[in-house]
């Protein structure tokens, strides 16, 4: 498998973690978002959406990180990242969607570029926008968590796979994590595992 990735892409980061947790051999192919390589002809021939990540498999190319995570879950079952119980599985997906649908899209690079380049928002205002929506989202996530070591239970699930990249970006934009002790503790615990730390942006071949 080839994963088309950018070291600071939250969505690609999710897939890197899952591939590591499941011990799936793969090759990382860097696509530089800052240089808009994801919009170039070479990449859009593989992924017409022009977004990261994309996973190239023997069956073809699959895009959208949550679709990739679900496919990996269904095809590589030795290390499950979803519970067996349907209700618990739905709870994990609920948490994932709260990140991938409600927090990430309004804070991703495309939106931040539009704020800067089209609306002439300065860096301080742009960062205020980012922190506001992360904090609002984290308030909800914190309330959804119990007292287990990971998001849902005693081992990582797709919820943790989605949470860790979002916290990384929150810290990068200097979000105060003090009001979110459960999220912060899970983030630290996950990063003590090689599957998470090896997937971290600073440990990627294309890290800048």
What does this structure look like?
The chain is α+β, with helices and mostly antiparallel strands. The chain folds into two domains: 2-79, Glutaredoxin; 86-195, Glutathione S-transferase Yfyf (Class Pi), Chain A, domain 2 (Up-down Bundle), CATH 1.20.1050. 49% of the residues lie in helices and 8% in strands. The chain is built from nine helices and four strands; from the N terminus they run βαβαββααααααα. It has helices at 10-21, 41-44, 65-75, 86-100, 109-117, 123-144, 158-172, 181-190, 194-197; strands at residues 2-5, 27-30, 54-57, 60-63. Strands 2-1-3-4 form a four-stranded mixed β-sheet, covered by helices on one side. α1 links the parallel β1 (2-5) and β2 (27-30).
Q: What gross morphology would you assign?
A: globular
And the CATH topology of the largest domain? Glutathione S-transferase Yfyf (Class Pi), Chain A, domain 2
Largest sheet: 4 strands, mixed
- In the CATH classification, which architecture of the largest domain applies? Up-down Bundle
Strand order of the largest sheet: 2-1-3-4
Secondary structure: number of strands = 4
Oligomer: single chain
Percent helix among the residues?
Answer: 40-55%
Residue-averaged pLDDT: 95
Order of helices and strands: EHEHEEHHHHHHH
Distance between the termini: 24 Å
β-strand percent reads: 5-15%
Q: Which value, in Å, is the CA radius of gyration?
A: 17 Å
Low-confidence stretches: none
Overall structural class, as computed from helix and strand content, comes to: alpha+beta
